Amino acid sequence: MKFKSLAAVAAASMLIAACGGDDGGSSSNETSAPAETNAPAETSAPAETSAPAVELSGTLIGAGASSQKAAMQSWQAGFQNANSKVTVEYDPIGSGGGREQFLSGGTSFAGSDAYLKDEEWEASKDRCPGDLGAINLPHYISPIAVAYNLPGVDSLKLTTKALAGIFAGTITNWTDPEIAGANAGVDLPDQAINPVHRSDESGTSKNFTDYLGKVEPEIWTYGAIEVWPDVGGEGAQGTSGVVAAINAGEGSIGYADASQIGDLGAAEIQVGDNFTPYSPEAAAKSVDASNRIEGRSDYDFGFNIDRTTTQAGVYPITLVSYHIVCLQYETQEEVDLVKAFMNYIGSEEGQAAAAAGAGSAPISAELRAQLEEAVAQISVAG
Amino acid sequence: MTSLVSSKPKGQFGDRIFRRVSTGVSLLVLVVLAAVAIFLISRALPALTADQAEIGVGGDDGEGEGFLSYVLPLLFGTVWASVLALLIAVPIAVGIALFITQYAHRKISSLLGYAVDLLAAIPSVVYGLWGIFVLAPFLSKNLFPWLSDNLGFLPFFSGTTSTSGRTMMTAAVVLSVMILPVVSAISREVFAQTPGLHKEAALALGATRWEMIKMAVLPYGRSGVIAASMLGLGRALGETMAVALILSPADVISFKLLTNQNPNTIASNIALQFPESSGLEVNTLIATGLVLFAATFVVNALARRIAGGEVND
Fold first, then answer.
1. What percentage of chain B has pLDDT greater than the value 90?
2. How far apart are CA A23 and CA A277, in angstroms?
3. Complex ipTM, two decimals?
4. φ and ψ at A215, to 5 degrees?
5. Which residue of B has its CA nearest to A24?
6. Which helix (H) or strand (E) segment is A135 a member of?
7. What ranges do the domains of chain B cover?
8. What is the pLDDT of residue B9?
9. For a FRET experiment, which of A125, A341, B117, B167 has its CA 20 to 30 Å from that of B216?
10. Is the domain B73-312 a CATH 1.10.3720.10 member?
11. Does A4 touch chain B (CB under 8 A)?
12. Is the pTM of this model over 0.80?
């Protein structure tokens, strides 16, 4: 009897603990982890840091956007190769969860497809030691291609009206004048358009619909959304699902991370009076051509991507993912780790690693210089 | 007993232990069930008690549709996909079971039984990949246009046919293949238990093989087949990965089988939306999980009633 009830109680409490630990728990995991893992660094490092050229050691913990998961794997590998005593952990739980964990002090940095909201920026002043708060570093720029499956059509130009109309369901055939008008000499098939979108919640959808809503607010009336609204079209899971769905059906068109579209054709997008094909350089320019958000730290690089730019050579459908870090940390060790890792990510080497591993667009030299200056400001509180 | 004097206390001790262990593990089932229910309810409550304008599509902007209209299409999709899968799978499974137990040569029947059981060992994500890369394109090229042209007057086959084939029809076919082994394995066992006397009596009265099956085997196995269908239904209701991969979902309640606007299932929707959700969105998803949990109980209870309370005799 005793054994039975004991076992039952133990099992029950394990279950409840496991259940109860779900969203509170992942943060409790994270909160306990830095304490443990930083401990050796704290005890062993002071002796080393007194010497100037220190070998970094310890564990750096971050969490956030799954969009930069592949890039993060490249960065982790590259950084840990150069610093064998450092472990970088990154939990791709999603942008919102990443910012939550960072603001609760569970992680040293967050990855996020959106910069800190105003109230989160205020909260970051409490979370970060000192009163300088946190900054957004746009380290990951990913062009979103509009891929199509039309055999025999090698190049396709889409006006902003055509693109918004296709995804809003108001343009339903490839021979629609809005499409044909921009593609003189191209033999467009008399075929129904099958627009493919993400069926899961996604930063790619959010950036793509943000673009549609900004350039054609009359046609795309749903704004920037992560979950596709009720406007028809085919839904598919993840980037690979979208690409598979486009491949499967002739006449399909969809948006996906540019590095993942394989052999599919990518449409040229109307920018001003010209049409711009996507390229890493053109995507990187979309950040340079945009305005920084105001009312933040001098070293904050949150951008409102200018979707309606008319500047030639800019590809405005891009996803920008940030690293969110404090300007001040408690300990020198944490400062050293964060600085070293952020500097590596922003470096040419780090950006090249992400381009190779995840197909992202390397940031421009101009932006790199600015971000390096921002990272250099990170210091110990006090 | 008397001849085993020396081992008697030991045997009783072992008996006691075994009884308690087995009582313990069966109580564990109740504990697990209760723990899951407590977890679901406690995590779902914030979504159910929150301002309904913050729930569902558009909830971020305070223009949400509310929990009820969020979950209804999902609940419909879950039940609709599972019922379709059962409609396809049960007749085939019963046919397989009858062939194996009544018609086939012993060697063939054991080989066939083994093959059907193997279907159960394939992970659902593999079924999903097969569905999306093989079955969906095949059906959309060969079957769907024909159904749409010839049976398009039926509401099920109306609407614009999907070009990629990622439809409710494809999802139901894949689900039916997935539940086939469960239903056929149990039906097979039940049919094999048909008393030989019943069968011989039927044959002695001049019944043909089919009449014998109709008179002796099927009535005897009826409750077993229903129990098997319930197990299959349980798997279909909760199936996640295959549906998430195959189905092209939309926020609709629709009986159309061939379009790319399909109601999603609850489990698949959770899998799709959970990774990028936070805060109240997570509570909303868990609340849909609670609905699925409750729906499974209701469906099971209904199935028991249909079976006339004879299921677990």
1. 37
2. 42
3. 0.71
4. -85, -35
5. B279
6. strand A134-148
7. 73-312
8. 57
9. B117
10. yes
11. yes
12. no
